Task: structure prediction
Amino acid sequence: ETGVTQSPTHLIKTRGQQVTLRCSSQSGHNTVSWYQQALGQGPQFIFQYYREEENGRGNFPPRFSGLQFPNYSSELNVNALELDDSALYLCASSPGLAGRYNEQFFGPGTRLTVL
Amino acid sequence: DQQVKQNSPSLSVQEGRISILNCDYTNSMFDYFLWYKKYPAEGPTFLISISSIKDKNEDGRFTVFLNKSAKHLSLHIVPSQPGDSAVYFCAAATGANNLFFGTGTRLTVIP
Result:
């Protein structure tokens, strides 16, 4: 059974650019959640996709957007990058809506640096 | 607004002794609590959880205690082993909603 994978591992962008991060969910999982972990902080919830629809969003601006595909893989897009967007971006998949009923399995993350 | 707080950024413990990691929360709607462990270059991995209807849950060397009146939970690891050295995150959830994480505590177990 393949776990959650993310690509790329590392990425360097400049302020104002756009970036796309990718996540392949674990087999049998239909829900993907994205988190941002800034240096020295815990993961902060960005949004969750359940069966290709956004289902819940954290306190992030609209320039953070996402997609989930029919195979339940997902993309996180960030437009107009700012220096504060530099962080580790974690993807987590679960067999249903995340929370007490379904354990989330995390990928290793994508380290984004904005210069 | 940090709804889940881990006030100790780091903790060092001798091998074989007990490690106690603490977590406080402010949202009384949280009804499910989890601990995750994170090694460098890896994503967090689930360790143990507890429902708000319980005050203790045990799994091998790991025990989580919940004090709802104090809005406090703790993770006890006994005996501590060098392989337990990692960053530990406390997280909380309401029903089927997403997780709110604390800032983490780096545990170092000294051989």
